[in-house]
TrEMBL record:
<keyword id="KW-0949">S-adenosyl-L-methionine</keyword>
<dbReference type="GO" id="GO:0005739">
    <property type="term" value="C:mitochondrion"/>
</dbReference>
<dbReference type="GO" id="GO:0032259">
    <property type="term" value="P:methylation"/>
</dbReference>
<dbReference type="InterPro" id="IPR026170">
    <property type="entry name" value="FAM173A/B"/>
</dbReference>
<dbReference type="GO" id="GO:1905706">
    <property type="term" value="P:regulation of mitochondrial ATP synthesis coupled proton transport"/>
</dbReference>
<comment type="similarity">
    <text>Belongs to the ANT/ATPSC lysine N-methyltransferase family.</text>
</comment>
<keyword id="KW-0808">Transferase</keyword>
<keyword id="KW-0489">Methyltransferase</keyword>
<dbReference type="InterPro" id="IPR029063">
    <property type="entry name" value="SAM-dependent_MTases_sf"/>
</dbReference>
<protein>
    <submittedName>
        <fullName>F173A methyltransferase</fullName>
    </submittedName>
</protein>
<dbReference type="GO" id="GO:0016279">
    <property type="term" value="F:protein-lysine N-methyltransferase activity"/>
</dbReference>
Amino acid sequence: WAALLMPGFRRVPLRLQVPYQPSGPRQVANALALLRGRSGKTVDLGSGDGRLVVEAYKHGLRPAVGYELNPWLLCLSNYRAWKAGYHGKVSFLKKDLWKVNLSDCYNVIVFLAPSVKPPLAAKLLAELPDEARVVAGRFPFPSWTPTSTLGQGLEQVWAYDMKKVRRAVQSSAEG
């Protein structure tokens, strides 16, 4: 029915879809607490309705960018940014996270399904600078040891500093 209401609407291929589950206020606060005091480009991979990107900008993380494939969620994200007074200050881009170069990103937020984490871990290891921090919500990266965690249950978030992650991956490969 969306194709009837919106000319030019295209479905996102099923293999690329991750279920949309909005982050709660405590999850957002916990994720941003683990990024407190940091600077540099901040991205949210699979940014959903944009709330994490808007809050990141509000907390001084700039530039703040969300990558999302769902056109409905991109519209909602842009509305959220406009309502917060950040239209034109934050960016929401319709880009496939697997095709985006992350080499200039220093803060990466990932609230994605567990099935995506192993291949995403390889991409992040290959592209992110040593100074980067990855914050995962809902599900940790299964093969990485977090630098820190915050919250309990569904509100828990995990922070990974790429330099430490790389060191651990190298030592386990050598051992």
